[in-house]
Design goal:
Elements (H helix, E strand, L loop, with lengths): L2 H23 L4 H5 L9 H20 L16 H20 L3 H4 L2 E5 L5 E5 H25 L9 H8 L3
Antiparallel strand pairs: 1-2
Helix pairs in contact: 1-4, 1-6, 1-7, 3-4, 3-6
Length: 168
């Protein structure tokens, strides 16, 4: 599998895992969803906002159209249904972004300013890997909270998700 195919697979996983998690969160009460659950970004909602924010940050860095933020905890969308819809819409954009990165560009170094204003240089491969790994990390935090709240947590392991998607 070449790099582009690999990252398209991760993008498909990312979209489907987000979709599966968001569906599983529907029965969670607003009090539990918006309340402080001891997560790094406090609530389930703010953690989902963070996933979307970082997706937009890296999308902007890769496409050369930076997404300006006030901080990594910035709330982009207050309403939980609107946030779910925006996460879904943004997940679809990864297909286009990755399709536009050829084998040569996959090997290039991406230079950008961090949210702290520091110059960073990372290979495109590392940036793409981090983009998807980052969301996986935070989805795992949310599923742990769901379990603690007595809610069924969705299975988000990549082999199961890709099997449902019929991806080899």
């Amino acid at each position: 599998m070449d790099h582009q195919a690999y990252f398209q697979t991760l993008a498909a996983y990312h979209r489907f895992a987000n979709r599966r998690l968001l569906k599983a969160l529907v029965p969670v009460s607003d009090a539990d969803y918006y309340g402080d659950q001891g997560l790094f970004f406090k609530s389930i909602h703010r953690t989902l906002n963070h996933i979307l924010l970082v997706d937009r940050l890296y999308h902007g860095r890769i496409t050369g159209k930076p997404f300006e933020v006030a901080g990594l905890d910035q709330e982009l969308v207050r309403d939980r249904r609107e946030l779910a819809a925006e996460i879904e819409r943004h997940g679809e954009r990864w297909k286009e972004v990755i399709a536009g990165i050829d084998a040569t560009r996959m090997q290039e170094v991406l230079r950008y300013l961090s949210t702290e204003g520091e110059q960073r240089e990372l290979s495109m491969l590392v940036v793409l890997a981090h983009s998807f790994n980052h969301a996986t990390h935070h989805r795992g935090q949310i599923t742990a909270v769901m379990t603690r709240l007595g809610q069924p947590a969705p299975v988000l392991d990549i082999p199961y998700v890709l099997a449902d998607l019929k991806v080899p």
